[in-house]
Amino acid sequence: MNYLIDTHILIWHAENDPKLAPRFAEILNDSANNIVVSYASLWEIAIKQSLGKLSVSMSLSELENYLRSNLFTLLNTSVEQLERLQKLPFYHNDPFDRLLIAQAQEEELTIITEDGNFKYYQVNLL
User: Fold this and answer.
1) 60, 63, 64, 101: most buried by Cβ count inside 10 Å?
2) Which domains does the chain carry?
3) Per-residue pLDDT for 93 more than 90?
């Protein structure tokens, strides 16, 4: 199965945080699944850290190495994804989440998130 993980899921997994639901941890740790992380999540982490709104124990380069060592796929942003983003209704104003939704729609990925706002969009969720 192909999954796109929301930023908080990424952080919880990387930090071994007990907030990560066991069912999500099982999916993320199953090598049969393709786990995708958007560069938008790394961008979100960088911005929130620089604003003092987030603390993560790894640097961005360490986090990228962590993703690669866990065989997670890093997803760049395409024009097609941005065009889909332009058409999304504004149920949710978070630009990072909106990009993840557009990417999941365009790439036919299921999003793993605990964010209740994603349910307002036509996107596969766990």
Assistant:
1) 101
2) 2-120 (3.40.50.1010)
3) no
